[in-house]
Design brief:
It is built from seven helices and nine strands. By secondary structure, the chain is of the alpha/beta class. It has a single domain, classed as Spore Coat Polysaccharide Biosynthesis Protein SpsA, Chain A (Alpha-Beta Complex). It has a seven-stranded mixed β-sheet, sandwiched between helices. A two-stranded antiparallel sheet has the order 2-3. Helix 3 packs across helix 5. The radius of gyration is 16 Å and the shape is globular.
Length: about 200
């Protein structure tokens, strides 16, 4: 298997949580991004954190922090773009900072499908629902992504439609993709230690 870099997407504005930096919000005594890093780190050769605020706080986790080159909080593709510029590996896995229980075999399964299908990008799904920010892609897609962003493109599914994608089922682990978007969801996960 080719070495894989990990890109943790923490560059959003956390609007649904009242404009906070979600990755730094506490879940069971630790910042959410710390949970994500703990699950992703054993699966990859390097990690880059994409953040657009509180850069010093993110740097304390011991990994390189990169900000969007595209202005205006342009979404996950802008974070992916910044991350791809920063990593050295031929493959990169992206995960969001607000899904603290991501699969421990995420990268292995996405990578196996990517190679088996000869695809450019592998994306996780459960049932009929895609989880587009849980992806593994070839770094060689960077020019395609740059062109899409330069055209004003921002929607992740619109860019995926331009590349060779394989969808990878994680129906055995639907709870692993639980993401925390609101204060209520954070409180629920914080108090219910049986989930997931």
């Amino acid at each position: 298997m080719n070495p894989v870099a990990g890109i943790v997407l923490a560059g959003g504005q956390g609007r649904r949580m009242g404009g906070v930096d979600k990755g730094l919000e506490q879940l069971r005594g630790k910042p959410m991004v710390e949970w994500v890093i703990a699950r992703l780190a054993p699966q990859v050769a390097e990690i880059v954190l994409n953040a657009n605020q509180n850069l010093e706080a993110y740097a304390r986790f011991g990994y390189r922090v990169v900000s969007d080159a595209v202005g205006g909080y342009a979404g996950p593709l802008a974070g992916l773009h910044a991350g791809l510029h920063a990593v050295a590996q031929p493959l990169a896995a992206s995960v969001p900072c607000d899904s603290p229980f991501l699969p421990l075999d995420l990268v292995a399964r996405l990578s196996a499908a990517l190679e088996a299908e000869g695809a450019q990008l592998a994306v996780a799904k459960t049932g009929a629902q895609l989880h587009p920010v849980f992806s593994l892609l070839r770094r060689e897609l960077l020019p395609s992504l740059e062109a899409f962003l330069a055209e004003g493109g921002r929607k992740i599914d619109a860019w995926y439609a331009r590349v060779a994608v394989v969808e990878v089922s994680f129906d055995d682990q639907p709870q692993a993709f639980s993401n925390i978007n609101t204060r209520e969801e954070l409180a629920d996960f914080d108090s219910d230690t049986k989930r997931p």
